[in-house]
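Dear colleague,

Following up on yesterday's call, I've attached the two folding results inline so they're easy to grep. Please treat them as preliminary; we haven't cross-checked anything against experimental data yet. The first protein's sequence and structure tokens come first.
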Amino acid sequence: MPDAIGNKVPKNYHLDVHAPEQGFFAKGLGNSDWGMKNRLSKLFNPESGNTVMLAFDHGYIMGPTSGLERVDVTIAPVCKYVDVLMGTRGAIRTCIPPTVNNAICLRATYDSSVLVDDMSVGTGIGADMEAAIRMNVTAVAIQCFIGGAGEARSMEDLCRAVDCGERYGIPVLGVTAVGKNMARSTEYFLLATRILAELGASFVKTYYCDHFENVVAACPVPIVIAGGKKLPEKDALEMAWRAISDGARGVDMGRNIFQSECPAAMAQAIGAVVHKGSSAKEAYEMYQEIKNSTK
């Protein structure tokens, strides 16, 4: 095993050198099987190479959070404005019409509720790959607590999911959950995203941070940023624009869409940043225009 003592601090990320294309538009995934690439082409828009994901999986640890009291009322109408729906099988099966054309990213892990002091101590697989196949999902999401008490268990879950995903051609999204004793620093995200990619995740979800371009460069597969806590719409669009400018291949917004004053307008504004290259200012003006037209 490599010895961390005496390891030189990384400093050259070769930001001026593009990653090999490998004959496929998604970074690092050109050697995947046809079925895997087909699903990836539904997760990421082949023209922009990016994705807008709508996360509504908060209830599996938080219960009915604001904006998700009725998933069928708040989420279903916004589906047409995003590429990917990110939720649990219970919420998807009961609240999302099976006629939607969105890619589905299934939250496959369970974690302890917010009542537990350290959510990483209770984590495991809540929906196996056979369940994912029955749900006809496009990808499964595995949460990993790098630096937390549940680190080893969650990393084993990721490896097993990757094995099954490669067997059936289903991509695995590795989600970086910040361990209780780890800071949300550039160093942490450099470590966490690289670990998940090296263990076989097809793409990685993480938080935006300082020097994010280095995190993207050091991760050999596409990175999607998490929306995180609710921000003012202008700030959320600015964060999305910065992330895409720094090399992220998409955003997975949850509260910043479904807790927005106008979720449909916010979803479309995020899409303009992610797929059309709109600036944060242009996207915010678009948000206001759509919001005002619905009054």
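Below is the second protein, in the same order (sequence, then structure):
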Amino acid sequence: MKSVYVFGPITVHGQDYLPVYKLLMKICSKFFDRVIGTYPDFWGSKESPKDFYDRTIQTISKCSLFIAEVSSPSHGVGMELQMGYENKIPIIALAKEGADVSAMVLGIPNLRKVIRYENFDDLAEKLEQELKRFSK
């Protein structure tokens, strides 16, 4: 079963990205059997931080692909990217045009592509093209 984990910031700037997460989940459902995401899977969690951490590791460690929204700095996203690296999961990073992306993110060995986008339509088109290549 092919699965993808779509993630990005939840707190601080997370609310700004809710429409992005919903779009990403819809696009990914065309290409993957299972789509796991910051929204809805981890949004508004009432778990203890330890339970949240444990569930995150358990849920995402066997995915086929990570898609990370990296336009805004986030400790949690950095940790999830490291989990992807440790589990040898390919990563696609998404960033709004003009956003500064951390050199640590850009240097991660299993980073497959950075997709820079201007708006939802641009993001959708570029991600679909990359997922078509990934699915082959």
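For the second protein, one point worth flagging: The mean pLDDT is 89.

Best wishes,
A.L.
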